[in-house]
Specification:
A mainly alpha (607); B alpha+beta (369); C alpha/beta (391); B: 369 residues; alpha+beta; C: 391 residues; alpha/beta; D-Maltodextrin-Binding Protein, domain 2; 12-stranded mixed sheet; 12 strands
Chain lengths: 607, 369, 391
């Protein structure tokens, strides 16, 4: 029988010494605190700096506001929300943003959901092949579709080279060529793979026995679908909705290309205009709004996640994969899927390729075809970029920048993600673990372009130990790293959870100190996860525009900003060629990575 | 080989769960101590605290007189410096290393030269009869082989204390029996102190030299296996240890013709008025003698054997006596039908209202505090 | 783990936030090393040779230029002096952003800005000491005083252009035609919100002098006086132009394509820079400048040359500015595009599409440095005016 022994209350000196000794051998705690503080700073500080800019007189505006620079002012808030120009600066862009986001979400979900069901739950032919290629639209840069659209539909309204249709004598109306419709369609093409993957996974795990139980009990097909299947798919649906919505919120390239010419502004393009016009104050206000919406979305997502617990399927047997027989509908279904593939991959890419080899758009004559835009030694009319794309130094320089900036960011991101995973799992159950997990997901709250704006505010000048970083590659590396941190963290946490604590504890018992166990046990086992954690941000960063458009300077152009610059100067063929190069690179790296890690990167793209 | 002492150790997890409460325990050196209890009783947590993988919220842990963990004294020795060995329930073998590399890991990190490592590893693998799989990876081994590799890895560094966390629960029956014998043999050869966590009472009974039965974070009883079996400290221990489980007969709130009343009346007669404090009586199945027409000085009642469950070596009989059913064990073939059942007074365990065992107290309980 | 991490981190976070906010708003830098840059013109004795020698010892010069001729300028300069120059084409907004942040961060790489947004230069860059003005001392007399601060390097022009294939001669002769319903949806021009010289031109249209000329031109065109609710005819012109559904483009190239695309029966007209008349048209566009529109055919705008403060190559920068002001520095622009150097000693180019300087002075509004302050102050108001009246 055990007897309770009362110990004297521990003196504080003993407690302190105890904790210090523990910390000495378990650097995980220090690592966790360090990471938390760093991430907190890297996310909160830029936002704080930007909010500060929103309410202080910016240099150059003293005459307008009649206050010295640095003083508090509500001028920018008034200008953005209440002034006569506020309709154009904020309210219309806000409405347009919501219209576009809702439109894209609905269309992408419909397309993605339908295709997912066809590919996963029926006996349609060609499923494995389709499952791979239907992800390609996401791998391409988001504004690829916009450029392709313009190549076909652009009319005379905004000058510049016209599209194929206009050149062939048709006159596409404005609402077809620019504005809400093309933006929604092209973005939906880009984002539907999200829904496709999410639904696909959910459907795969969905136990068809659930459906069958309902049927046996006498429920008709429709009742089964809407009372059993749909509610259980709800978590996947909500996830897809929120993910897509939040991405569209921060997206810049497509609305810039298709909307700005006809003054169809969304919040991100309005922000960019303020930036270009030097209205730093208004830019800060718009960023704050975008971030506010982003936070609202994530809050909703978290709330829904809690609700989701109700939908965990009860029952131990694995999911049965009974496929619906389509019978006579097999071929039409295949046709539908192939059409989707053509519309979202073949046609856009084909159009772009065609445009890069035609001198005058729309003229399908033999003499009009040329490889000049790719390989000519000299293109005299194209001042500033006077060579074929593959010949000149600009593409190579931009590619080199892309690779080293994005490469470095991806490596740092991967390492940080694994570290986060390590700390979170090792200290599982503690408040530090919970806190770090939340903090590493914070960048999710801040949609792309607003994040860049915030970083501009913060790192323009020296702050504490960190020097001012504008114009340096470090700033781009930093921003990209923080942007992709959530994905790397999620991957890292998943990987470490799968490993568990015990292999490392076993090493500990065998006498290995912290560094020895990390080096010999944790890292070698997690090689695969680390690689994935590096490759995914790399691919995403290669085609990233929204975040870098305001931070890249002429000396630090990356591939994506080069393409937009060419577009801005009106060098349409070169711009199209550049975006094709990016798309090709992204697809190539994805394919390589898939071979290397042997895993389906498609699963990582859900992040 | 040192003795392990835990003094007033408690563990509270973030979130308020109290896994271990004021646990005080001494494991003598060279003992094979089994921590036995249902899941969630705190036995694995205790083991991990001894290993240093968890830190107690209060209390002190020392081994061989050397304090390993004490908040009061401000001392903490990390697991890597405790010279212990631990076998996880999941084995936790490192998938990217071969059997040989897994086993020699402890030696590698201690900087033991290659030749010596190689020799030592060969010894250990031979000890466990797995020298032929030295070059394979864990994924290529069977469950039993993986188990032995986990053991080998632990033994390679000659630890002072061996800690085992339900290591046999993933094995099939035959393998389990083999491994139990192996462990016993290793214990005898190496004379190390072993702490073995299990929820299987049969395993604990057969392997341990000392048993600590735990429930809800507290130790219910410590002692030699047979002592615990014969003199359980309380109802929990009595019911947990023994298969088939002990028969528990409530004594209160029944009417005159019940089994409980009959037994109580017998107990009063034989043991005396102290029997009145009892609320339950426990009778081990093997103490229920069947069909011998009664023995002298025993409680006897006519009974009816209703069902027989042959186990191969014995028959478990469910016996209807008065208004209740008892389980008895017979080592000979018997038939169903009317018979008599008898229990000797020595075999009656009396339990108080709070579950504490009252008697019989023919021998003093062996417990060390 | 019983460390109350959350509490600690929250307080650290709060401290950080305070630290960040505590840093002052963007303020002008008080630079320590003033010595190297002497502002404005100074009558020091000018030794070109010494300047070259000093420049050779410095790191390569980096320069930004609104025009793509920067690549030719860089090559020629390097060929002449053996000093390496990195020249990149960048628009005004980008140049301002980059130089601001470089100087504020103390990490200056740029040397010289060839920038067209004079208003911004005078309002932001010079007062905050991000750039310094330097006039080559040996040219003080050949550059008109009013073009010296900031230093104008070269005058370019934007004029109304038409498609000679569609119209034999220029189809408009009064500037108010651009606002006429006849030309609704058929006037191409760059987005004023993104084109500093255009919005500066707007501000010039609203000066009393020019507004009077506009009112007179209106009277001549329509026979009656202009009725307007705006302050003067200049504002009214801008309002009507915005409301006339112009083809707003991102670049002069796009404007040129719009106006000059072959095969158009009713081609638009457009406002674009001289360069579009000389470059071999990539798509076979047909373009010609209008040479007689009342009261102006367009405007002349300067490209300035200023030196970045604390540049790592101050002497190379000065040498480069000096070079820009010579005939060789003007040559790539004026021989390809037209226009003329601010240095009156430099002869006009071979490819002058409009005519001699007198023609320019008669038919174009000159956006001289003197109007920069006003242009800056009015910029936001004019931008808003434009946006609010766009249909």
């Amino acid at each position: 029988m055990s007897a309770a022994v009362a110990l004297p209350r521990a003196p504080w000196r003993g407690t302190l010494s105890y904790h210090l000794q523990r910390a000495r051998y378990e650097p995980t705690v220090a690592l966790g605190i360090g990471l938390s503080v760093i991430f907190l700073y890297l996310v909160i500080a830029p936002i704080a700096a930007m909010l500060s800019d929103a309410v202080r007189v910016q240099f150059g505006d003293e005459a307008t506001i009649r206050l010295p620079a640095g003083d508090f002012t509500s001028y920018y808030l008034w200008r953005a929300f209440r002034s006569p120009i506020s309709k154009l600066l904020f309210w219309e862009p806000l409405l347009n943003t919501l219209v576009v986001a809702v439109g894209v979400t609905v269309l992408a979900l419909a397309l993605g959901g339908a295709l997912a069901w066809l590919v996963v739950r029926t006996d349609m032919p060609g499923q494995t092949w389709l499952a791979t290629v239907l992800v390609v639209p996401y791998i391409m840069p988001s504004w690829t579709f916009a450029l392709a659209w313009l190549t076909v539909f652009k009319n005379r309204t905004i000058g510049g080279q016209v599209g194929f249709l206009e050149a062939m004598g048709f006159h596409p109306p404005n609402w077809l060529a620019y504005g809400a419709l093309p933006i929604v369609v092209t973005l939906a093409f880009h984002y539907f793979p999200f829904a496709f993957l999410l639904f696909g996974n959910a459907l795969r795990r969905f136990d068809s026995q659930l459906e069958e139980s309902a049927r046996i009990l006498g429920a008709g097909s429709w009742t089964t679908t809407h009372r059993i299947v749909v509610p259980l798919m709800l978590p996947a649906v909500m996830s897809a909705v929120l993910l897509t919505f939040s991405r569209v919120l921060g997206t810049f390239g497509t609305p810039y290309i298709l909307g700005l010419p006809v003054n169809y502004n969304v919040l991100s393009t309005s922000l960019y205009q303020s930036f270009r016009g030097g209205s730093t104050g208004v830019m800060a206000v718009l960023s704050a709004v975008i971030i506010g919406i982003g936070i609202g979305i994530v809050a909703m997502d978290t709330w829904l996640l809690r609700e989701q617990q109700r939908f965990v399927t009860v029952g131990s047997k694995g999911a049965m994969d009974r496929r619906t027989r389509l019978r006579g509908w097999r071929i039409p279904a295949l046709a539908l899927a192939v059409t989707a593939f053509c519309a979202t991959v073949v046609v856009p890419l084909g159009t772009l390729i065609l445009s890069t080899v035609m001198r005058i758009p729309g003229r399908f004559e033999f003499g009009n075809f040329t490889a000049d835009f790719w390989i000519a030694r000299r293109l005299p009319a194209f001042v500033g970029y006077p060579t074929g794309l593959l010949r000149g130094p600009d593409l190579a320089a931009a590619a080199w920048n892309s690779f080293r900036i994005v490469g470095l960011a991806a490596i740092v991101c991967g390492l940080l993600g694994l570290s986060v995973g390590y700390v979170v799992v090792r200290m599982h159950g503690t408040r530090l673990s919970f806190f770090l997990r939340q903090v590493s997901f914070l960048p999710y709250l801040v949609p792309g372009i607003a994040f860049a704006a915030a970083y501009l505010s913060l790192f323009a000048v020296r702050r504490g130990p960190i020097p001012a970083l504008y114009g340096t590659l470090s700033l781009l590396v930093l921003v990209l790293t923080v942007t992709y941190l959530p994905f790397a963290s999620r991957a890292g946490i998943a990987a470490m959870m799968q490993l568990g604590r015990e292999p490392e504890e076993a090493a500990q018992i065998c006498g290995a100190r912290w560094w020895q166990r990390v080096r010999r046990i944790v890292v070698p086992i997690q090689k695969g996860a680390l690689t994935t954690g590096i490759i995914l941000p790399f691919i995403a960063g290669l085609k990233e525009l929204s975040v870098v458009i305001m931070l890249a300077t002429p000396g630090t152009d990356v591939l994506t900003t080069l393409s937009i610059r060419l577009q801005e100067y009106g060098y349409q063929q070169l711009a199209n060629a550049a975006v094709l190069v990016i798309a090709a690179l992204a697809v190539a790296v994805t394919y390589l990575a898939q071979r290397l890690t042997g895993s389906s990167l498609a699963s990582g793209l859900e992040g | 080989m040192p003795e392990i002492t835990l003094t007033g150790v408690s563990k509270q997890f973030p979130g308020g769960v109290r896994a271990v409460e004021e646990l005080t325990l001494t494991i003598p050196d060279g003992a094979f101590m089994c921590l036995l209890g249902p899941s969630g009783c705190g036995k694995t947590t205790t083991l991990r605290m001894i290993a240093g993988l968890e830190q107690p919220s209060s209390g002190e842990i020392s081994v061989g007189g050397r304090v390993l963990d004490s908040v009061a004294q401000g001392r903490f020795v990390p697991p890597e410096k405790r010279s212990m060995g631990l076998v996880f329930q999941s084995y936790a073998l490192w998938p990217h290393l071969t059997v040989e590399e897994n086993t020699e890991f402890g030696l590698t990190v201690r900087g033991v030269p290659r030749a010596e490592r190689h020799a030592r590893v060969a010894d250990v693998l031979r000890l466990l009869h797995i020298e032929q799989v030295a070059d394979r990876y864990p994924a290529q081994l069977s469950g039993g082989q993986q188990q032995r590799v986990a053991l080998a890895r632990m033994l390679a560094v000659n630890p002072q204390v061996l800690l085992l966390d339900e290591p046999l629960s993933n094995l099939d029956a035959r393998l389990r029996l083999e491994m139990r014998a192996e462990l016993k043999r290793i214990h005898q050869e190496l004379r190390s102190t072993i702490v073995f966590v299990t929820h299987d009472q049969l395993e604990a009974m057969t392997l341990g030299t000392q048993l600590a039965v735990m429930n809800a974070g507290r130790i219910q009883q410590i002692g030699a296996p047979m002592t615990i079996y014969r003199r359980p400290a309380n109802r929990f221990v009595a019911e947990f240890v023994g298969n088939p489980p002990i028969n528990i007969v409530p004594l209160r709130g029944d009417d005159a013709g019940s089994l409980g009343a009959s037994l109580l009346e017998f107990a009063r007669r034989v043991i005396g008025p102290s029997a009145d404090a009892a609320w339950w009586i426990g009778i081990r199945p093997e103490a229920v003698w069947l069909g011998l027409g009664g023995r002298n000085g025993c409680w006897v009642q006519p009974a009816r054997i209703e069902t027989l469950l042959p186990t191969g070596s014995t028959w478990i009989a469910s016996v209807r006596v008065l208004d209740a059913t008892l389980f008895g064990v017979s080592f000979q073939e018997i038939g169903a039908g009317p018979t008599s059942c008898s229990v000797s007074a020595d075999d009656l365990h009396l339990f108080a209202e709070d579950g504490t065992r009252l008697g019989p107290t023919r021998q003093p309980p062996e417990v060390r505090v | 783990m019983n460390i109350s991490v959350k509490r600690h981190v929250t307080s650290i976070g709060a401290i950080l936030v305070l630290a960040v906010c505590g840093q002052g708003a963007p303020t002008a830098l008080t630079s320590q090393a003033e010595a190297s840059q002497a502002p404005a013109a100074s009558a020091e004795k000018f030794d070109l040779g010494a300047l070259v020698a000093a420049a050779k010892k410095e790191p390569p010069l980096t320069t930004l230029n609104n025009s793509g001729v920067v690549k030719d300028l860089a090559t020629n300069f390097t060929a002449k002096y053996g000093i390496k120059v990195n020249g990149t084409k960048a628009d005004s907004a980008t140049q301002v952003q980059q130089v601001s942040r470089e100087v504020q961060s103390g990490n200056v790489k740029l040397g010289v800005l060839s920038i067209e947004d004079g208003a911004l230069v005078e309002a932001r860059l010079i007062p905050q000491r991000f750039v310094d003005n330097w006039v080559p001392p040996d040219m003080l007399n050949s550059i008109p005083k009013e073009w010296q601060n900031p230093l104008v390097q070269i005058w370019d022009a934007k004029v109304v252009a038409y498609n000679p294939e569609a119209y034999g001669a220029c189809p408009i002769n009064n500037i108010w035609d651009l606002t006429d319903p006849k030309w609704r949806g058929k006037v191409a021009l760059r987005d004023p919100l993104d084109t500093p010289e255009e919005i500066t031109w707007f501000s010039w249209l609203t000066t009393d002098d020019n507004a009077r000329k506009l009112a007179a031109a209106y009277q001549q065109r329509y026979g009656n006086a202009l009725q307007t609710r705006e302050k003067n005819a200049g504002y009214e012109f801008i309002v009507r132009l915005a409301a006339n559904q112009p083809i707003v483009t991102k670049s002069d190239n796009d404007s040129a394509s719009s106006v000059g695309a072959p095969g158009q029966k009713e081609a638009p007209v457009g406002i674009m820079s001289l360069g579009k008349f000389s470059e071999a048209p990539p798509q076979g566009e047909k373009l010609a400048p209008c040479k007689s529109i009342r009261p102006w055919i367009g405007y002349a705008y300067p490209r300035y040359a200023v030196i970045v403060h604390n540049t790592p190559s101050p002497n190379a920068a000065k040498l480069y500015v000096h070079y820009l002001m010579t005939a060789e520095g003007a040559a790539p622009t004026i021989n390809q595009h037209g226009g003329f150097s601010a240095n009156l000693d430099v002869a006009p180019g071979r490819n002058e599409h409009l005519g001699p300087r007198e023609f320019w002075e008669k038919n174009l509004i000159f956006l001289t440095p003197g109007g920069n302050d006003r242009a800056w102050q009015m910029r936001e108001r004019l931008s808003d005016l434009w946006r609010l009246n766009r249909k």
